Fold this sequence. Notes:
This protein is an alpha/beta fold and about 325 residues long. The protein is about 30% helix and about 25% strand. Residues about 1-40 have low confidence and may be disordered. It has helices spanning about 35-55, 80-85, 130-135, 165-180, 195-205, 220-225, 240-245, 250, 275-280, 305-320; strands at about 5-15, 20-25, 30, 55-60, 90-95, 105-110, 115-120, 145-150, 185-190, 210-215, 235-240, 260-265, 290-295. The chain has ten helices and 13 strands. It starts with 6 loop residues before the first strand and ends in a 5-residue tail after the last helix.
Amino acid sequence: MAPMPCARIGSKLRPPPAPSGTARFSEGLPMPRHAPRATALLFSLAALTLLSACQTQVFSVQDGDMFRRSAASAPQDWSTQLQNLSLPRQVSTVQFKGQDGTALGGVFFKHPQAKATVLYFQGGGNHVQKDFRWLATLAADLPVNVLVWDYRGMGLSEGTGGTAHMATDSLAAAKLARQLGGEEQPLVYWGYSMGTLISSHLARIDPPDALILEGTLTTAQDWADNQVPWFAKPFVGVDLAATVRAFDNREALQGLRRPVLLLSGGKDDVTPPRFTKDVVAHMSQPQCATVVESPMAGHGGIHRQPQAREALRRFFERVTHPGTC
């Protein structure tokens, strides 16, 4: 007798709140700090449970789940620590308005001999007060100003998070970066993880002088599907909101004619190097892309690897002496 096929569960579950000791790692799903290994374990346990019941479960992630305000408390002297860690740059807290008047915030790192200005797009769940220690060393020895802004509903920014105002908020951040850095300075967008989706889509409507993508996604749905181990896929699925699925780096970069540096990590299981290769394969101007893979890097801190640091130095030299890509 043939085995009875499993039945799919029609209802969808929201991911549970992140328990104590976990973080909103990467793109919004509640994950332990040691993701993706723990993430794979989470989905594996779910798959084993559902296998015993011969059922398939779909986890539904809504638009706002991607931009939840962190409950983690920041040190009261975070701004003082940030300044001490950022020398020779001078650090100032900035505020600006979204199109609807919502107060948005971030920090500006001013370099005394800046040759370019970077507008930095953070990963999901990241914000200035929580991540100030590594944000302080983001540009390190590079002679650039850096504006890091918190997405609506996160950190220093008010309002309710989501994609509805992402384009206009990003435009406002780019305008501020040009004002603070000086209109004569080249402007470079630098996106990390989920921030690669946001920076690339802004580049379509307000092209920068150059673009840096670190830990690049193809789409948020590809990222979510990649978190489910192969043996769990028949039993566990992740369904992202349509507004989030609409962000596609392959489409956003297809016609871009600007220098693009793509940094990937050889040990990155969250946004594996094949994501980066897929994005470049869809570019109509692939000669504009420089791909650098750091073999020993995981998802976080790719830019700190020796191969990436050298690539960044060369890239900014190229940006400050513009030519055709």
